[in-house]
Amino acid sequence: MVPQETTVALSPALQALLSTSSAVLTRSALAQSIWLYIRTQGLVVDDEGNVYCDNALERVCGEARVHVLLLMELIGARSRSSPVSATPTRPTPSWPEPDFSYEIRDTSPTGKLFSKVVPDPCAWFPSISRSVLGHLYSDPLCAPTCFSYIHVVIRDFEGVAYCCDVECDNRRGKEIHLSTRHLKNIAGRDALVKDDDEADTTAAPAEWKRRLRWEIDGVICHETVHAWQRNGNGTAPGGLIEGIADYVRLRAGLAPPHWVKGKGGKWDDGYSTTGYFLAWIEDNSAHPVEGFVRNLNFMLQDSAWDDGLFEVLAGKGLEALWEEYQASFGEDGKELTSEQLVPVPTEGATLNSSA
């Protein structure tokens, strides 16, 4: 049976944007807005250019169809298989998998802690990277392709970890540095007494290993977010960038035991304070906003930061959302102490618009 045609009405905001845009460039703010609209409306396009409503399997015609096809031409989007066909017309896209390598520069017993809990890094890291991408992007086609490798360095330095841009042999990449001093603090002094599995004399060996592996997974998850996330061409607040990284760590089930959710601070204090706030926007029972962080990250691909993005994506202004979040703890809600509001220092290097 041939699907009946139906017209999908464009929102007033999108109509106004289209009417005022005299020129459309690849990956422009206009293209992002239309793409976001298409995704939220559940539209799909088959390989013959037919546009459908994903749920009703109805063909879309008229103005909406024109805009969908225009967008595909502009950003080179590839469609899913036709909803009226049982056989996919092309392979399902997969998440990008940059080359991975690592090195342990700290040759002391402290440097060996990493290998004790991560025996096969080349199998371990890709799963973390794919998990991060799944929390930042709704579709592999939206993920960046502007670097080709990630190199993890385990070495001795003050701090926890950081991510930075690197280039080698005309190849752009990312480097994540992890501090062995931090690993030693997490594992505990007794983990270094002996160079074997019975090193910890105050707790079962499995406990300090579990504790250390949990922290390594969480920290590398946080830094891998910095490798993949968007930052509005450097205009997004640092607190938001760090908050998104901890939001992903939280969603991945890797929140450390010292994180505390409570009242106080500012929305852009960053790290877990902002991370819990972003999760609340998506989960709060009054007006949950599914996919808020993915959509926000997508909008920051080329658009400069503007706190109005919160109102566009969540339906309420940023300050109003923060006040509502604070109120959700109630009058007797736990107040965060000044120590809890001071984050562990890390450094993030994030992507620009190049993909």
Please describe what this structure looks like.
With 355 residues, the chain is of the alpha/beta class. Helices cover 41% and strands 11% of the residues. The chain has helices at residues 12-20, 29-41, 63-75, 113-117, 121-136, 180-187, 205-228, 238-251, 271-283, 292-299, 308-314, 318-327, 338-341, and strands at 5-6, 43-45, 51-53, 59-60, 99-104, 149-155, 161-168, 171-179. The protein has a four-stranded mixed sheet with strand order 5-6-8-7. A two-stranded parallel sheet has the order 1-4. A hairpin with a 5-residue loop joins strand 2 and strand 3. The longest helix has 24 residues, at 205-228. The protein is globular, with a radius of gyration of 23 Å. The two termini are 41 Å apart.
List the helices and strands and how they pair.
Elements: E1 5-6, H1 12-20, H2 29-41, E2 43-45, E3 51-53, E4 59-60, H3 63-75, E5 99-104, H4 113-117, H5 121-136, E6 149-155, E7 161-168, E8 171-179, H6 180-187, H7 205-228, H8 238-251, H9 271-283, H10 292-299, H11 308-314, H12 318-327, H13 338-341
Parallel strand pairs: 1-4, 5-6, 6-8
Antiparallel strand pairs: 2-3, 7-8
Helix pairs in contact: 2-3, 5-7, 7-8, 8-9, 10-11
